[in-house]
Amino acid sequence: MKNQTDLPYEKFLAYGAQNLTDAELLAIIIRTGTKGEDALSLAKKILSMNANQSGLLQLQHIHLEQLKSVKGIGEVKAVRIKCVAELSNRIAASRMHERLDFSRPEMVAAYYMEQMRHLENEQVRMLLLDNRCRLIIDTVLSTGTVNFSVLSPRDMFIRALEYRAVYIMLLHNHPGGDPKPSGEDFTMTARIKAAGSFLQIPLLDHIIIGDGRYMSFLEEKLL
Description:
It contains eight helices and five strands; from the N terminus they run ααααααββαβαββ. By secondary structure, it is α+β, with helices and mostly antiparallel strands.
């Protein structure tokens, strides 16, 4: 018979969350097991689903249906697990955001990499910044197959003026993983740069996110 402090919930009460393994933490979220397998066994099974990743990080990349395919994990438990993963992601992003310097392309790319590198479609985001290069607001301009010709600089700068932005920054991802800019990327960057110069709201950078790689127009001296 198991000692009570061998059980994840009781171990939490006795020693605190910091002394629990990833599997034990997840077992508490799952709460109950199924016939022949307790919650801890189910947690270990989930954490070993992805051979390319280990630990809690992979929960962000396991789809709901994959979780539900584990015997003993129904929709309610699967949703609970995905919500915990998203909360963890947002907490980490919030902490990083507090010390993020938007004048440094490598920091900006690192911050957005995990959010954008796995997107199946292209997404364009505009960041509005104050005079100290701090984020005012982050807005998605387009999702899907990016056609920069339909993105209106007029609409973008109306938003920038509304929020009294001093700088703007563009980010978009390349789902294929290669951050090399296309001809259209160059054309749109030039259009936004020209409009920003006229309105005295400079385009600080345009960063393209690939798979673990990025390209910055600022770093490449293309602005």
